[in-house]
Structure prediction request, 117 residues.
Amino acid sequence: MRITLVIFSAIVWPLLSTASFAQQPTPAGAVNPLPQAEASPDDIEGGKMFATTCGFCHQDGGRHAGRGPKLSKSERSDEYLVERIKKGKTGAMPAYGSVFSEGQIIAILAYIRGLDD
Prediction:
């Protein structure tokens, strides 16, 4: 029994101590704001992503309705468009939230907002 306790103390205890130091608690009332997603130079250009994934349904680069609606000069809010890209619409549009990064979604949104007729 004593040998088991010694082995536990020598092997497991240091691991538990290290894990507790790695998870430093956040002080009460502290807020950890999420960073704003921005398109970076490492992200694929929004127009290319739109053309390869969205262009099949949103015709002429989103300027005309096809299987999907016209996106040029959309009156929908940015939040609505981002959520629609992420979650899709059952039976109409696939969800891309697990496909694109936040930055890539912002790049696609920027592309849509830059469309003209």
Summary: Confidence is low (pLDDT under 50) at residues 4-10, 12-23.
